[in-house]
Amino acid sequence: IVFRGVTGEGRNGFMALDDIRIRTGEYCQLLPPEADPRFEGIH
């Protein structure tokens, strides 16, 4: 999963990520390959 966002300058440069789902069994390539995902919080 890659989340990329660019905000503007100043106080109004907000962004939000909504409705994110991680589904069991779907392939997800780790980038960078040496990444160490933590699954303790996923139910």
From TrEMBL:
<feature type="domain" description="MAM">
    <location>
        <begin position="1"/>
        <end position="30"/>
    </location>
</feature>
<dbReference type="InterPro" id="IPR000998">
    <property type="entry name" value="MAM_dom"/>
</dbReference>
<protein>
    <recommendedName>
        <fullName>MAM domain-containing protein</fullName>
    </recommendedName>
</protein>
<dbReference type="GO" id="GO:0016020">
    <property type="term" value="C:membrane"/>
</dbReference>
